[in-house]
Design brief:
Length: 186
């Protein structure tokens, strides 16, 4: 019987998966979570951070509540930068460079008050789907890659994310008005 080392198995994985696993404090547990649940918690602020954008803001800019329509819009609007969708909100997480929470502090404070946008970094974990979990599944409502990560280190350009948020804030009603519930993904 031929012995296969753990390094050999890891080397057979995609470069994107290996890159994501390099952020995991326990890569073996992360692989098991992906296998069992399709999602694993990864720490932010190491390889990347995430900007949480509420679905109502993204849907307003995209002009659609359709999961595929919003996903296609985000792919184009964010220049193919990776975005994770939690359809239960819905909430979108644009993956950005790890230093963005520190450099965006003032803007995020303003966006948090007016649009419920947040920039998540160190001391925060994000549910990251397996790399093959793309597209909305109406049967499970599981988190998925709205825009799949295309290569290791490929992230959303921060200025492009900021422009998307600014456009959404402009389209949403005044913060003092009651916002309508976010349209469910379909």
């Amino acid at each position: 019987m031929r012995h296969v080392s753990a390094e050999t198995v890891i080397d057979r994985r995609s470069p994107v998966e290996r890159w994501l696993l390099s952020a995991a404090p326990a890569p073996g547990q992360t692989r098991r979570d992906w296998a069992r649940q399709g999602v694993a918690l990864l720490p932010l602020g190491v390889l990347f951070s995430a900007v949480r954008i509420p679905g109502r803001l993204v849907q307003a800019v995209a002009g659609s509540a359709s999961a595929q329509g919003v996903d296609d819009f985000l792919d184009e609007a964010l220049d193919g930068g990776p975005v994770i969708c939690d359809p239960r909100g819905p909430r979108y997480y644009a993956l950005v460079p790890a230093n963005v929470p520190a450099t965006w502090r003032q803007a995020v404070d303003d966006w948090r008050r007016s649009a419920d946008v947040d920039c998540l970094g160190r001391d925060t974990y994000l549910g990251v789907p397996r790399i093959d979990r793309t597209g909305f599944d109406p049967h499970t409502f599981a988190g998925y890659w709205a825009v799949a990560i295309s290569s290791p280190g490929r992230l959303c350009p921060p200025l492009t994310v900021a422009r998307l948020i600014a456009a959404g804030v402009h389209l949403l009603p005044d913060e003092r008005e009651e916002w309508p519930a976010c349209a469910p993904l379909r």
